[in-house]
Write a structure and sequence with these properties.
- By secondary structure, this protein is mostly helical.
- It contains 5 helices and no strands.
- It has a domain of 45 residues.
- Helix 1 packs parallel to helix 3.
- The protein is elongated and about 40 Å long.
Length: 81
């Protein structure tokens, strides 16, 4: 199926051949995301992302360097038996 044929069918609803084309066509997938009215509704319902590109590294580095309340282990931890 050609992209020009699949796109109107995808907007109308379920169509097996158009959906099969969508699974293998990255261009049509992007087009459908840009033109499908349900995408905008879902994005509005989801709300803004909690983590932004600038806050993510700060949040992950803070979590990594937070003390866990355990003493640091120094020296060898193995025992000679």
């Amino acid at each position: 199926m050609r992209c020009e044929d699949a796109r109107p069918l995808l907007l109308k609803g379920q169509h097996a051949e158009a959906e099969a084309h969508l699974e293998s066509c990255e261009i049509c997938f992007g087009w459908l995301e840009a033109h499908d009215p349900i995408v905008a509704v879902l994005q509005a319902a989801r709300g803004p992302s909690v983590f932004t590109a600038t806050s993510w590294p700060a949040a992950s580095s803070t979590a990594r360097h937070t003390p866990r309340g355990r003493p640091a282990v120094t020296g060898s931890t193995s025992r000679n038996l």
